[in-house]
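Pipeline run #58 for the internal structure catalog. This entry was flagged by the ingest filter as a single-chain record with no existing model, so it goes straight to prediction. Upstream metadata was stripped on purpose; only the residue string is passed forward. Reviewer on rotation: M.T. Logging verbosity set to normal.
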Amino acid sequence: MTRRWVWILVSLNLVLLVALVFVYPHLMVSPGGVIAGHGAIATDCFACHAPLRGASAARCIACHALPDIGIRSTKGKPIVHKTLKVSFHQDLLQQNCMACHSDHAGPKLLQKSRKPFSHALLRSAVREQCQSCHRAPADKLHSKITGNCSQCHAQNAWKPASFDHEKSFVLDRDHNVECATCHVNNDYSRYTCYGCHEHTVANILREHRDEGIRNLDNCVACHRSADGEGGGGDD
């Protein structure tokens, strides 16, 4: 009889715990507080979560209309953008809010395991229009560049860039000009020196013929700065 009552008490406690999970999930199983914007539904877990199934994108979109995300608030008020970044949610391949968002602060251990935003979630056409979301650094190099970011940067991270301009040519003195002066049509994978001063094929050939130089398209092989030959070192 004693053992029977023990099992009855254990069973009743389990039933009570399960009931409490459904009645007060924000107290029983919540991983942490929600963001300030969701403070009004902090105790209403089922506003975002389906029972036994977890968070649902359909429930997010019920409040956050997809065409308005990043543009207007849930109350229809326009959002004033203080940065260049604007809404890109309309260009996602699929409506998977949880791929990027978690409204719970949660333990620090879980925060470190969260995956950052992936450009693979965007439609391919949007992935190549980097400057619609990102502002270029305000240095002397990026201030003159327009488009074709992927020639130097990968989409998995802004840093490190794959190219250091000064290892190929120092942008000093008269060479600190617009990128399009040397990189025609903003194609940074190619360059030309035949756009300034005496830089014509005939003049350069005349000056280099005695030195046995015939390759006149790769000027930076010898000229690495405005100082003339040999300015770039051994690489």
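catalog note: The two ends are 88 Å apart (CA to CA).
catalog note: The chain has two domains: 31-135, 137-235.
status: ready for reviewer M.T.
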